[in-house]
Specification:
The complex is a heterodimer of chains A (151) and B (307). Chain A has 151 residues and is mostly beta strands. Chain A is 11% helix and 38% strand. The chains are: A mainly beta (151), B alpha/beta (307).
């Protein structure tokens, strides 16, 4: 695909997060506080995708996603690709791996979990069970499917 | 040699290794046969029950007294100023732990004990946090099973009744899975063992099966662990139908092995008829009594580097 065919404008330097499942793009922008960077961000939502049917894409100028951030991204978009761009060229592709723990991102779906009432960050142990991501709350010890987790 | 539980928090049965469980059981055996009324001398144990649980509280407090310790605390947070003033649990724990050598707590919310452990300056012992964990119940169950069978290894155990909400069942299966036991789960569909726990057992390679009735497996069982099917989980007609299938009578025990023991975390309502009490299989009242020895063992280990 040449640049004239790009669905979202190319960036000079920064990070491109592609192949995000449609509907997750806005959540990811919020999660990583990307809006607060004050850098130029271009976002494509519900773009056609051969693999996914529809996808979201995020391009952030002058910002490099860290490996830890990329791992957190895997919680929302396990098949996303993260390309670091320099001078319009891809200089590095980050591999996404599920983090072992996630802290302060999701609130516990168990309404009777003590983490809702006390001055603590939520903490979950992340595990893949038969291809499904499961979150086990550090406090109430309940396990939850990804779809139940609210940011 | 220092014991591995010295100054440790006791929050969840899944935090224990097999060796630690065996240490608690061996210590309970020792304290039942040879009382040691000096093990908690000069120690103060906070017994803080943010919700009422009379049996568990009295059992803990008896354990402290029998070891020569002193108890401070409350039996229901409604009778304290904590709830009225709106203090966080974290702050309450900081203060109370500064008055005591160990902090026994019961709380209606899941995860409360784990959170308390983050703020306490002394070991926290979970006496029940919502529907989550009640590790000392599991320790007394294990001690009782060991006492009646002479081993925990390779037993066949049936769990009957409310397996969905019964935290005692959840914790006990987790603990017994360290000892190569086989499980039968006998419950109404609506109260079946949760999937995530079955997944955990499968991952560990534990042999378990679902069955419809106790009679089907009675002759194989070493332990029959009964729990209460709560009326409020069903409408009236359905309850009558369901409950009758999960009531233990002497007739149901007809083909039991001589060594079988029936356990129940109590209170028993009508899921075990009173005439079972007179059979040699009934062991639930001894089980409740064993709660004191198991809690003595745990407190003694947590507060003494060596015994």
């Amino acid at each position: 695909m040449n640049k004239s065919q790009l669905q979202v404008e190319a960036i000079h330097n920064g990070t491109v997060i592609d192949h995000i499942p449609a509907g997750q793009g806005i959540k990811i922008l919020q999660l990583f506080g990307l809006v607060q960077t004050h850098e130029k961000i271009t976002v494509g939502l519900n773009l056609p995708s051969k693999a996914l049917g529809a996808k979201d894409i995020i391009k952030v100028e002058n910002t490099r996603l860290t490996a830890a951030q990329a791992n957190q991204l895997a919680l929302f978009a396990p098949d996303a690709t993260v390309n670091l761009i320099e001078d319009f060229e891809v200089v590095e592709k980050l591999q996404l791996q599920l983090p072992e723990q996630v802290e302060g991102v999701f609130s516990c779906p168990n309404s009777n979990c003590i983490s809702h009432n006390e001055p603590v960050s939520s903490k979950f142990r992340v595990r893949a069970v038969s291809g499904q991501v499961r979150f086990r709350c550090n406090y109430c010890e309940k396990s939850f499917h990804r779809d139940l987790m609210a940011v | 040699m220092a014991n591995p539980l010295y100054q440790k928090h006791v929050i969840s049965i899944s935090d224990f290794t097999r060796a630690e469980l065996e240490l608690v059981i061996d210590t309970a055996v020792m304290l039942k046969t040879h009382p040691r009324p000096e093990l908690l001398k000069h120690k103060v144990v906070a017994s803080c029950f943010f919700e009422a649980s009379t049996r568990t509280r009295l059992s803990f407090e008896t354990a402290v007294h029998r070891l020569g310790g002193a108890v401070i605390g409350f039996s229901d947070s409604g009778s304290t100023s904590l709830a009225k003033k709106g203090e966080t649990l974290a702050d309450s724990v900081r203060i109370i732990s500064s008055y005591s050598d160990a902090f026994v707590m019961r709380h209606p919310q899941e995860g409360a004990a784990r959170l308390a452990a983050e703020y306490s300056s002394v070991p926290v012992i979970n006496a029940g946090d919502g529907s989550n964990q009640h590790p000392t119940q599991t320790l007394l169950d294990l001690f009782t099973i060991y006492e009646t069978q002479g081993t925990l290894q390779g037993l066949t155990v049936a769990f009957v009744g409310d397996l969905k909400y019964g935290r005692t069942v959840h914790s006990l299966t987790q603990a017994l899975s360290l000892f190569g036991c086989k499980f039968y789960f006998i419950a109404p569909q609506a109260l079946a063992m949760p999937d995530y726990l079955c997944d955990e057992l499968t991952e560990k390679g534990i042999n378990f099966e679902f069955r419809d009735s106790m009679e089907e497996v009675m002759d194989e069982l070493d332990i029959l662990y009964m729990t209460r099917v709560q009326k409020e989980r069903f409408d009236e007609t359905e309850y009558v139908h369901v409950a009758s299938k999960y009531v233990l009578t002497p007739q149901v025990l007809e083909n039991a092995k001589d060594s079988l023991k029936v356990l129940h975390p109590l209170p028993r309502i009508d899921e075990i008829t009173v005439d079972v009490d007179d059979t040699p299989y009934a062991y639930y009242f001894e089980q409740a009594e064993n709660g004191v020895y198991a809690r003595q063992a745990l407190l003694a280990l947590v507060l003494n580097e060596s015994l």
